[in-house]
Amino acid sequence: MLENWFWFLLLGLASFRLTRLIVLDKIAGFIRKPFMEEIEEKNDKGEIEEYIIIKGKGLRRWIGELLSCYWCTGVWVTTGLFFLVTFNPLLGKPVLIIFGAAGVAGILEGILAKIID
Length: 117
Fold this sequence. Notes:
Elements: H1 5-23, H2 29-32, E1 36-42, E2 48-54, H3 58-67, H4 70-87, H5 89-116
Helix pairs in contact: 1-4, 1-5, 4-5
């Protein structure tokens, strides 16, 4: 399946987008909520700063630490996507294509936001 650069690049883009979704996006906050508390406070300059407090002990704390780390979650997301596309290509290929395209869109949006601002 990942025998050529296209699928490798697509895996990277899909991993990027799915990891951001899990670790950073508000829409996936319900996944993080049992494991961490996200607190927003205004600093002296009036800017919003976000703090994360990991909840619990043992496995719950470990999952909270994992979900608070973009790089750590990225390894597991990439591993999951790799095995999905390897062992169930009928489901895995569309997942890679959808999240890969969303990753490209996110990168382009970030570039355009910097150019326009």
